[in-house]
Design goal:
This protein is α/β, with parallel strands linked by helices and 389 residues long. The protein has 15 helices and 12 strands.
């Protein structure tokens, strides 16, 4: 345990505390067993370390990575037992999905040590319900996405803007710093602002590594895929990157990949849950529900610039940004007459010359325009939807 404590100290020293992700204040940290899941690279580990550094007693707290060599010869439940006997009260476990029997041992730790609070992070593909029905009744799990445009402005440019609800945005109740010019920053955000690690050198190489690890390790490990099947995932993502947004023809894609149509639906879901694509569904079940998939997008504009490269279409990027930023707080579904529907609102997304034709006679219909700074009547600037969380 001494080596684990030393590693924890080293991580705390390098953990920044000047900026907190949107989830920091939303989590009920009083839960005995809570998880934070999300795509790779969105800052889950940093958030947990920030909480430990700022809110917890260092002498009774331990942060470990489930992939640490320590666990090649030790069990998590044994670590918890030793830690509690030494007076430990908070055990934080990073990347729990890398530990083989994570669900069973988390349940045992929860049941055996009533005074121990256990926090863990994991891949967004981690399914607590699949891991253990008993665990799903015990654990409170939060999901975190990448940076909003608002968070990016704060983290990278020290520009503080409060969160605005969808009602604030459509009713033009936006409060901004004096002389703020959104398009001085918006393009940079689209290209690399979704991931907090874009501050680091060789960002595009690092992002490619995140994508590869998700495809080659996280999804296959979770779904018990063979290596050859994992290669199919990479082929599928390439097809999607070259086509988005598109209406998926499962039969033709299955033929291209040489897989069954039934398996292909699972592959799309794995890619969605791991934060690589978004599937826009009809009103039966929303973006994460059971509705029929109408369109498939890459998850965020930064992925589009990395994977789509020169074929990235500005119209596709605009739609991807809108869907990516609004889905965190709202259920976004396909619109039968336009691009997107959120509750009673209908949205048509386009450039500054976008016309009103498709929305004529539609109550609560809005034209979302890129390259404009201010909204008016039923016209809303695209960038403002990046203030939603």
């Amino acid at each position: 345990m001494d080596k684990l404590q030393t590693s924890f100290d080293a991580m705390l020293r390098t953990t920044p505390t000047s900026f907190h992700r949107y989830m920091f204040d939303r989590i009920n940290w009083n839960n005995r067993l809570l998880g934070l899941v999300g795509p790779r690279g969105v800052g889950k580990t940093t958030l947990m370390l920030q909480y430990a550094k700022e809110k917890l007693n260092r002498n009774t707290t331990l942060f470990v990575n489930a992939d640490d060599l320590y666990f090649s010869s030790h069990h998590l439940v044994d670590l918890a037992d030793d830690f509690v006997k030494r007076g430990g009260t908070h055990l934080l476990i990073d990347e729990i999905h890398k530990y083989k029997d994570w669900a069973r041992e988390l349940k045992l730790m929860y049941d055996y040590y009533a005074d121990l609070k256990i926090f863990f992070t994991g891949s967004s593909i981690l399914d607590i319900n699949k891991g253990s029905a008993d665990l799903s009744r015990r654990a409170i799990v939060y999901s975190m996405q990448g940076l909003s445009f608002r968070e990016y402005l704060n983290m990278f440019h020290n520009i503080e803007i409060q969160t605005h609800t969808l009602a604030d945005i459509v009713e033009h109740r936006i409060e901004l710093p004096e002389k703020f010019r959104p398009y001085a920053y918006f393009q940079s955000y689209l290209e690399k602002g979704y991931y907090p690690f874009s501050k680091e050198d060789q960002f595009h190489l690092r992002l490619q590594q995140v994508i590869n690890t998700t495809l080659e390790v996280d999804i296959p490990q979770y779904s018990e895929m063979s290596i050859s099947t994992a290669r199919k995932l990479k082929q599928l993502l390439t097809i999607i990157a070259q086509s988005v947004p598109f209406k998926p023809n499962m039969s033709s894609i299955a033929i291209m990949l040489g897989v069954s149509r039934n398996n292909l639906s699972d592959y799309f879901l794995y890619l969605e849950e791991s934060g690589l694509i978004s599937q826009l569904r009809d009103g039966v079940g929303g973006i994460r529900g059971l509705g029929k998939v109408d369109k498939v997008y890459l998850d965020n504009p930064t992925l589009m610039y990395n994977l789509g490269k020169e074929i990235s279409n500005i119209g596709n990027i605009r739609e991807t940004f809108f869907l990516n930023q609004t889905r965190v707080e709202q259920e976004v579904i396909t619109s039968p007459i336009s691009d997107f529907q959120i509750a009673d609102y209908t949205f048509e997304v386009g450039g500054k010359n976008k016309k009103q034709k498709q929305l004529q006679g539609i109550e609560n219909g809005f034209v979302v325009k890129d390259n404009i700074e201010q909204g008016y009547m039923n016209v809303i600037p695209l960038w403002q939807f990046g203030l939603n969380y």
